[in-house]
Amino acid sequence: MAEQGTVVVRAYTSRAQIPVTGATVAVTHPSAGGKHLLVALRVTDESGHTQPVTLSTPPAAESEHPGTAAPYTLCDLWVEHPDFQMLHVENVQIFSGVETLQDAELLPLPEFPEQRDMTRIVHLTSQPL
Question: Checking DSSP bridges between strand 3-13 and strand 99-105, what pairing results, if any?
Fold first, then answer.
């Protein structure tokens, strides 16, 4: 049986970390040609959290020996709300048996934006295993 891990997104705004309700979160797997395979869609609740998304992961035992493949699955997150800039979080690492809580700080849109595409990209680096 394949092993699994989960990811939960917490969307918020401002340094006071005010929860953002009603943000749409797309969880994707990067695939060939720079495209993304949709895994799940979730909407944040009144606390800014999504319901967990379960992903298949490599066995945890793969992390016990050097030189083996990465012991995690990578996914990307796209967080969108009409009042905020879109956020794209790349390379979120999901480990077997672990619930990953990924923070997503959303920046408010200006009242009269000049740019149509206002997406902020956050690239996460791999775990130094």
Answer: parallel
